[in-house]
Amino acid sequence: MTETRTALISGASRGIGLGIANRLAQQGYSLTITARDAARLDAVALDLRAAGAAEVVTVAADMADEDGVGQVLAAHADRFEAMSALVLNAGVGTAGTFAESSMRRFDKTFAVNVRAPVQLIQGALPLLRAGAAAAPDRGAKVIALASIAGVYAEAGLSVYGAAKAALISLLATLNAEESAHGVTATSIAPGYVDTEMSAWIHDRIPPDRMIAVDDVVEMVDSLLRLSARAVVPTIVMARAGSDAYRA
């Protein structure tokens, strides 16, 4: 009997999330995808089905909205009995010195980059455990897109780096609690990746000096093929030509 693989991907309409969704569609996954733009999601869903996705569920939601996150979880649970992979890709970036960072910026950054992942993981755990039980050799995976700024402090990225550091810590604790049951987690912490989110710094770092989206997709694909016996807590991806300690 062919294994039914399902994944929930946040921030799936563009950039890294879209790249991951395309790769999993090509492998025949059933997908739940979410982003804020409903029309964009519908267009992406058509492409994913054409690429080979067994089924695609779309949910337009803002990850800063607790009810929206709940709707995403409910939509996956209503259609699928398990979850093979939870990909936490949705995020917001913020730059500015520690002295000038506003609490409004802090609240939004932590809501999307920390609170939403906590809510998604907590809500998805029963489905992930079911996915691990259905495929004990492979288990179920949680993969979060963090940032190198969450590993190495960088001037101008205090709030963003703190949020990503919290995300890395959360996944490390998830491994301590759940990896023995087949649910393993990895934070991928790249420097600047060539996406729309990084366009603000093109005057200093041009796109051809950034990490390619496909490099991150390859990393996610490799992680999803690991056995349940292997735990990779954090992967740092640095830009070529940098000192490897900054975004």
Describe this structure in words.
Helices cover 43% and strands 16% of the residues. The protein is α/β, with parallel strands linked by helices. A seven-stranded parallel beta sheet has the order 3-2-1-4-5-6-7, sandwiched between helices. Helix 4 links the parallel strand 4 and strand 5. Helix 1 runs parallel beside helix 2, helix 1 crosses helix 6 and helix 4 packs parallel to helix 5.
Brief overview, please?
Helices cover 43% and strands 16% of the residues. With 247 residues, the chain is an alpha/beta fold.
Calculate the terminal CA-CA distance, rounded to whole Å.
Answer: 45 Å
Strand % is 15-25%
Could you give the count of β-strands?
7
Rg value: 17 Å
Regions with pLDDT < 50 over 5+ consecutive residues? none
Largest sheet: 7 strands, parallel
N to C succession of SSEs: EHEHEHEHEHEHE
Oligomer: single chain
- Count every helix, treating DSSP H or I runs of 4 or more residues as helices: 6
Which helices and strands occur, and which strands form pairs?
Blueprint: E1 6-10, H1 15-26, E2 30-35, H2 38-51, E3 55-60, H3 66-79, E4 85-88, H4 103-134, E5 140-145, H5 158-178, E6 183-190, H6 213-224, E7 234-237
